[in-house]
Sequence to fold (316 residues):
Amino acid sequence: MKPVFSIIAPIYNEEDCLPLLYERVKGVMDQTGEPWELILVDDGSRDKSNEIILSLNKKDERVKPVIFARNFGHQIAVTAGLDYSQGDAVVVIDADLQDPPEVILELIAKWREGYEVVYAVRAEREGESWFKKITASMFYRIIFRITDVNIPLDTGDFRLLDRKMVNVMNQMREKHRFLRGMSSWVGFKQVGVSYKRAARFAGSTKYPFKKMLKLALNAITSFSYFPLQVATYFGFIAAGLSILTIPVVIIMRAIGSQNFLGQASTLIAVLFLGGVQLISLGILGEYIGRIYDEVKGRPLYVVRQAPEKENSPEQA
Ligand code: UDP
Ligand code: MG
Fold:
């Protein structure tokens, strides 16, 4: 039977969370009275997650394993879940139970009212370090300011997407993915539901600073040219300043002023501009690297095992 609801959870070393995740999702979804599926995408876990997913699938065939050949990252894992989902409404949820499965019922209620995207807004966050909270809060605010798409503040990937939405997103095969931005870009009727983000049930975060930074860079470069424009602004400011100051220096030298003899001022100007130029090159490099990744046209992920797909997947 074709499911009405698909729940997608990306899994990276979550052996301790998986059994409870299944129980809680099952408890919640059975209340809807509709057929559902739980797609567990194993993103190259090194612990027992893989076996646990397979045994859950043996016990309950509504659990559908998608097993990656290696770790491809959280956003790609969710993407694979979207590719394999069949439901009319698809819910993306973290496996560590920070997003309480009970909130899914509220998301579904809004979906039934006719919204195509119902995103969960973190009103409170429990059990996360101040560093994580501050960087996350800064991240959402910076993205909000410098991108063209309206990405709602303090929302993660915990959200419900209508089938229409999923079909469009499945056509967007960009390699460096920021799904929240992509779903805002698509549009349709969107609404937020606020919830209290719980502490992680077990294990530790799989998003160390390096991965957070990578996600932030992907978000910025995928939805904004702002960093490139900053380089241009800097160029104009530096050029403007030199046009103003060069005549001053020439005139003062001509009238015999000794003020500009030393090398310190030259050195400062050279070092400063050298720095600005290198940073600008780096920014260009970030964009060019991403263009290169797109041009290579590799598949987004490789699966070791996955359910049959109706509309054929991009890889074997
Ligand atoms: N995750 C993943 N691949 C990764 C990193 C994380 O599939 O490379 C999953 C992880 O198992 C969890 C979700 O993404 O279900 C969110 O990760 P986590 O809870 O560690 O992030 P945080 O809540 O600390 O931001
Ligand atoms: Mg988490």
